[in-house]
């Protein structure tokens, strides 16, 4: 890679992006990102145990790279993981046993695979699902009332509501929901001491083996006896008239079953935390529930559950005057883009009426999140049920963020409250 010309302050700020613990410290992370946006918006990060990459911290540059999906590719490095984990994942893919989800793919294969589940997330499907989502929102707000006056909102409410929605959509038995939750925590929490299964890439990738074993049995069942659920659509999906490969089929299940609820959990818990710490905005929203659509978008911007994706340059190119050579990787800092002062007025103010709100939390371009409409509906339903019944709420302890470089948010949110 090119020789960095950054001063020591910028180098230190850039290194924070390659430190999972920085994502568990909002002040540290946002301070580093604000410095990079102002001084080195295309910053070289060379921090072992990760391979070097260019951190892209401006909203406009992130969008431009996402649009240029023929120049900046997801393969072979879609996420920031250690060099050892990169090598192991590459070896597994070459052996035909690795994880290759939509976020790992490029067009045209990405486009063909995406179509398999797309109908399940279109507006008509969402309208049909809304009654069930509203029922579940009421169930979990009732549960919150019943277990009060204190609870850990993340572990007792925010996790379970979207988990139940997405796994019901897949058609999985409720007895298996706990297992899916544990595997999701272990997969996304590989850098977090509370969640990770082990310390080596091999131990952490064993989580994937457990996922695959479960979904291999599910695939066989749904191919033998198809049912009216998303699992059957995936199991029997065709590409050019032929079944998907085992790797693509199993990977499809993994991304839907894990990211399909964990990111929503992060937005829900982050949104409630923002309302608690901004009581004027909580009162404003309670007084005018017509603001809920903009409030939902602000919660999603504020929490930014997906911290980054990586792209690799297919040819020599330039980003904001900085040469990026063919084969070099860029890190799209969505957390930074969502606080870009050139795009968001007073970006560190939580504003339930913010409009426009061009956040990047769902990505942009061909990789825009397949489940974005479902996530928005779930967040809207839960807070539409909760806020009219909420008489009081405050923190009952210290919130804790997960250590991660990919998907994450609050892992504990102790609250004290009164509900009707």
From TrEMBL:
GO terms for molecular function: cholest-4-en-3-one 26-monooxygenase activity; heme binding; iron ion binding; steroid hydroxylase activity. Transmembrane segments: none annotated. InterPro entries: Cyt_P450, Cyt_P450_B, Cyt_P450_CS, Cyt_P450_sf. Belongs to the cytochrome P450 family. This is Steroid C26-monooxygenase. Its cofactor is heme. Pathway: Steroid metabolism; cholesterol degradation. One of its GO terms (biological process) is cholesterol catabolic process. It comes from Mycolicibacterium confluentis. Keywords: Cholesterol metabolism, Heme, Iron, Lipid degradation, Lipid metabolism, Metal-binding, Monooxygenase, Oxidoreductase, Steroid metabolism, Sterol metabolism. It comes from the Bacteria.
